[in-house]
Amino acid sequence: MAALLSYWEHQTFLRRADVAIVGAGIVGLTAAIYLRQRHPGARVLVLERDALPNGASTKNAGFACFGSVSELIEQERRGGPAALLSVVRYRWQGLQRLRELLGDEATGYAGVGGFELFRTADAALAEECRQQLDYYNQLLAPVVGTADIFRDASRRLPEYGFAGVEAMLENQAEGTIDTGCMMEALLRRAWQEGITVLHGLPVLGLESTAAGARLRTPLAELEADRVLLATNAFSRQFFPELDVVPGRGQVLVTAPIPGLRLPGSFHYDKGYYYFRQVGQRLLLGGGRNLDFAAEATAEPGLTPLVQQKLEELLREVILPGHRPAIDYRWSGVMGFGQELEPFIGELAPGIYGALRCNGMGVAMGAQSGWQAATLIN
After folding, report:
1. Over the Cα atoms of the chain, what is R_g?
2. Which positions ≥6 away from 43 have C-beta within 8 Å?
3. Of 53, 138, 345, 357, which has the most beta carbons under 10 Å away?
């Protein structure tokens, strides 16, 4: 195949890069942009294996969030207050960095707030979370910049018409984005910065060399001084020992629903389900907890178990008495690990990684890209 490439293709698109980035998602593209800003003369090449980023960057629900109260409680139990504060700071800084880089108009950002819903069966958890509101407001105030982050919004439940929901807590600092607009804006910005982005070019092999690194693709072998893996859940293809495992998230979007009005982003069942209004449609995703083993896969796909549960939740809890048609169904693959914070570091001589967003790539992505660009001098 390489023999069929023209001189121009070799000299323009496939020539040696100062930095080659594998993965054109949020992390990969922001890292590329920040690298060009730090080193204006550098040749930065981004390789994406599919026509569109194939992880979660173009498939997420568009939540600009940093953790509901029940998620914060669970994460603090795992790592302690200092680790929780650190990871929330990372998420918050990532969201602000993304907004500053692209602008709210380009990303469709809306500060509509976020809500965590509790079923009647979760009354004890709801009360535990209520008792922690003041604590988390004080703990996170230095990060978010306000002491009035979380509050009990249960009195507003009649406005929404949910069934079987007995409590609702609000995060006033949460928002939503338009995922497609965000990724299109990142791609446009990358090309404007002089970055070459090649789609449909998977990296099949990767190795360190005396002069940097070599990447094997179906088109040709490419050379780079340094390589950044921004492949999140797919990274074990290159480094099997990494603390990052895939977690598939399934999503559906309804047909337009006349009169739909659900402003905000909603978390349900400890964040394992999430939904929001998109135009006059309802987006609903989650259900990974129904079968963790089956959803611990990097393969895209839908399962009857999860899709049926999503539809049940839609009909019986979110829009009781309604049976809206479903126009879109898809899945995205996230990367999870034992550590709360992502991995940003060297994996082998000349090869670096920016990985493991733990299901919060929208929040962490730009910060991970910036941190990786700072690491690769």
Report:
1. 21
2. 15, 16, 17, 18, 19, 196
3. 357
